[in-house]
Specification:
Elements: E1 6-10, E2 16-20, E3 26-30, H1 34-38, H2 40-45, E4 47-53, H3 57-65, E5 71-74, E6 80-86, H4 90-109, H5 123-150, E7 155-159, H6 166-173, E8 179-182, H7 190-193, H8 198-208, E9 213-216, H9 219-233, E10 236-238, E11 243-246, E12 249-255, H10 262-269, H11 272-284, E13 288-295, H12 302-315, E14 323-330, H13 337-357, E15 365-369, H14 373-382, E16 385-388, H15 398-405, E17 411-415, H16 421-424, E18 429-431, H17 436-448, H18 451-467, H19 470-489
Parallel strand pairs: 1-4, 1-7, 4-6, 7-8, 8-9, 9-12, 13-14, 13-16, 14-15, 16-17, 17-18
Antiparallel strand pairs: 2-3, 5-6, 10-11, 11-12
Length: about 500
């Protein structure tokens, strides 16, 4: 990774959380999730201070003991870093996370509203914005400013939709700070932003344009962002240079698709726990196995996937008893009503398909709800078809992880609305996520594809994933920081052309 850098990572989640054992001892739980995994090697190779929310009661106790200041921690790989946990007001955090960030911003950015019926942006949303989302972002900004006071030369690396307001709040206090922000979810087209009241959509765009660099996974999301800046703010956009000038400040907008660490999955392939889970799958599987590994998030489009599989079974009775759809689903955000209702819809649909088609010894949909990464890796090895039919997805790492370790020349069925489609679509079977018939046809095409063609497609995907790995993604982020930093060092104005 070259020279060690001083970085301040700001994200809602920390690499660790704290709890108490049955004996009353404090325990450390290593964090999971794509963002924590992606940024793990930053901690190994650079001097990182990580600012995150204190989520658990024990997190808040740790934060209080440290008077809200940063303290030394150690990564899973043994690398030291500084962790600063921000203890928000509990009501404010609930409004921030469970009213604004997920049911509003996440839904908007994944096109998940049926606009004739939802949303109703009532007083509750406005209250949650001003008494939740704004105060929590202010807390993150204060912590970031304190760390910049400690080390003004550090670059700040904000992450995702939880922190749209924080960059502007930091910029107002530290105008010369180097700020970058990576948004890991889609950026919808400009008309869809008009669902939000004008002052809210302006606040989002003005907040992120306080950064020197703004990153997305794909050129598609980047293009949408540039267009919305023109529409929402009347900003000056240079499409050739991929820059936006607003309020006297220029922001560079980039696209770099996130990836995985191939060696991690190569090692997991032969892990003893994975092999045991694989043995169970092999014992139970029929001739063909269709796999989906997802969270129970409405954006993942699980219900339509089940309906497409049912239509496939209708159209191809010769496949009855020969194919199972294994759905390994991690329950997501069950304290948000829309998510708990969607999980119930998934369970109802699986039951309806199984009641209709199952026969002795054969269950068409094997639905398992739980968080079992080891089982997921084992299933990655065994699928004949991987179904990824998300309504919209910022990227989708499952399509990369599974393809890397699969041992059956499995075929990837990939929604055209995933960020990963920009990289992998050439070698996948592309589907429209709303076209149930098209997905049923794709299932049949995948299951009947010539063996040489299956192998050619999978090897091409693997080659792409290995070339464009996690190290390449991190290097691209740091190169962007260098690019902007060098321009400033040579006297180019941050604030104008």
């Amino acid at each position: 990774m070259g020279t060690r850098r001083k970085l301040i990572v700001v994200a809602n989640r920390a690499p660790v959380s704290y709890a108490r054992s049955a004996e009353g001892e404090r325990t450390t739980i290593r964090g999971g999730g794509g963002l924590v995994t992606a940024l793990r090697s930053l901690v190994t190779h650079h001097d990182v201070t990580w600012i995150a929310s204190a989520m658990s009661d024990e997190d808040r106790a740790v934060s209080t003991e440290r008077a809200g200041d940063a303290f030394e921690e150690t990564s899973r790989e043994g690398a030291p870093y500084r962790l600063r946990l921000v203890a928000h007001d509990t009501s404010a955090y609930d409004w921030y996370y469970n009213v604004v960030a997920n049911p509003t911003l996440w839904f908007l950015q994944h096109y998940m509203w049926g606009l004739p019926y939802a949303p109703d942006l009532d007083l509750g949303l406005h209250n949650a914005w001003f008494n939740g989302y704004l105060p929590v972002n202010e807390g993150f900004a204060r912590a970031t400013i304190a760390e910049l006071d400690r080390d003004p030369a550090a670059a700040v690396f904000f992450h995702d939709y939880h922190l749209y307001l924080a960059p502007k709040l930091v910029r107002e206090q530290r105008p010369d700070a180097l700020l970058a922000h990576f948004i890991h979810i889609p950026w919808p087209e400009r008309d869809y932003w008009h669902v939000l009241p004008e002052h809210l959509r302006r606040a989002v765009h003005e907040g992120v344009l306080a950064n020197d660099i703004l990153g997305f996974h794909t050129a598609r999301w980047k293009r949408n962002f540039l267009r919305t800046c023109e529409d929402v703010l009347g900003a000056e956009v240079d499409y050739a240079e991929s820059t936006v000038v607003h309020d006297g400040r220029r922001t560079l907008v980039t696209s770099h698709p996130l990836s995985i660490e191939p060696q991690e999955f190569e090692d997991l392939r032969d892990d003893a726990a994975v092999l045991e889970e694989e043995r169970v799958i092999v014992e139970r599987r029929p001739e063909f196995l269709i796999l989906r590994v997802d969270r129970t998030d409405p954006s993942k489009n699980v219900v339509r996937g089940f309906r497409a599989f049912a239509l496939f079974l209708d159209m191809h009775p010769e496949m009855h008893g020969r194919v199972t759809l294994l759905a390994l689903l991690d329950p997501s955000r069950q304290d948000v009503p829309e998510y708990s209702e969607y999980l119930a819809a998934i369970q109802r649909e699986a039951r309806a398909v199984n009641d209709r088609f199952q026969s002795e010894g054969w269950t068409p949909i094997d639905l398992q709800v739980g968080d079992n990464f080891t089982q997921s890796v084992a299933a990655y090895k065994q699928y004949d078809v991987l179904l990824v039919n998300a309504v919209f997805d910022g990227l989708n790492l499952v399509s990369k992880e599974a393809s890397l370790v699969n041992e059956r020349d499995g075929v990837l069925i990939l929604s055209e609305n995933t960020g990963a489609h920009e990289e992998l679509g050439e070698w996948a079977l592309t589907v429209n996520p709303f076209d149930v018939y098209g997905q049923a046809q794709a299932i049949n095409e995948a299951l009947t594809m010539d063996a040489d063609e299956r192998r050619r497609r999978l090897e091409a995907i693997r080659g792409s994933v290995r070339r464009h790995d996690l190290a390449a993604w991190l290097a691209a982020q740091l190169a962007d920081l260098d690019r902007v930093g060098v321009a400033f060092a040579h006297g180019d104005e941050r604030s104008s052309h």
